[in-house]
């Protein structure tokens, strides 16, 4: 059984391995927060115009994945 940690983003209790906890140096995120953070990081790296294009493309493709 894996230990339970509070998510650093929203505080939801999530089950993660102790190995994962150590690898993330205690900054454990639930999958929702991890996704949101990855997305915002990817977006912040983009040029504003590329960001606009990406959001347009996502809207056109529907699901975005
Ligand atoms: Zn969270």
Could you please describe the fold and organization of this structure?
- The chain has helices spanning 18-23, 31-45, 48-61, and strands at 4-6, 13-15.
- Helices cover 54% and strands 9% of the residues.
- The model has no long low-confidence stretch (mean pLDDT 89).
- It has one domain (4-61).
- The chain is mostly helical.
- A two-stranded antiparallel ribbon has the order 1-2.
- It is elongated.
- It has three helices and two strands; from the N terminus they run ββααα.
Structural class of the secondary elements? mainly alpha
Sheet with the most strands, sense and barrel status: 2 strands, antiparallel
Distance between the termini: 32 Å
The number of distinct structural domains comes to 1
Envelope shape: elongated
Give the overall pLDDT as a whole number: 89
Bound molecules: zinc ion
The tally of helices reads 3
* Residue share in β-strands: 5-15%
Radius of gyration from CA coordinates: 16 Å
Helix content: 40-55%
> How do the helices and strands follow one another from N- to C-terminus?
EEHHH
Q: How many beta-strand runs?
A: 2
The order of strands across the largest sheet is 1-2
Low-pLDDT runs: none
Main attributes?
65 residues; mainly alpha; two-stranded antiparallel sheet; 54% helix; binds zinc ion
In short:
The chain is mainly alpha-helical. It has three helices and two strands.
What does the secondary structure layout of this molecule look like, with pairings?
Blueprint: E1 4-6, E2 13-15, H1 18-23, H2 31-45, H3 48-61
Antiparallel strand pairs: 1-2
């Amino acid at each position: 059984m894996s230990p339970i940690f509070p998510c650093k983003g929203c505080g939801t209790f999530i089950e993660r391995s102790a190995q994962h906890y150590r690898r993330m140096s205690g900054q454990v995120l639930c999958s929702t927060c991890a996704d949101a953070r990855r997305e915002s990081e990817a977006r912040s790296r983009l040029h504003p115009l590329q960001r606009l294009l990406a959001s347009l493309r996502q809207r056109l493709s529907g699901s975005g994945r």
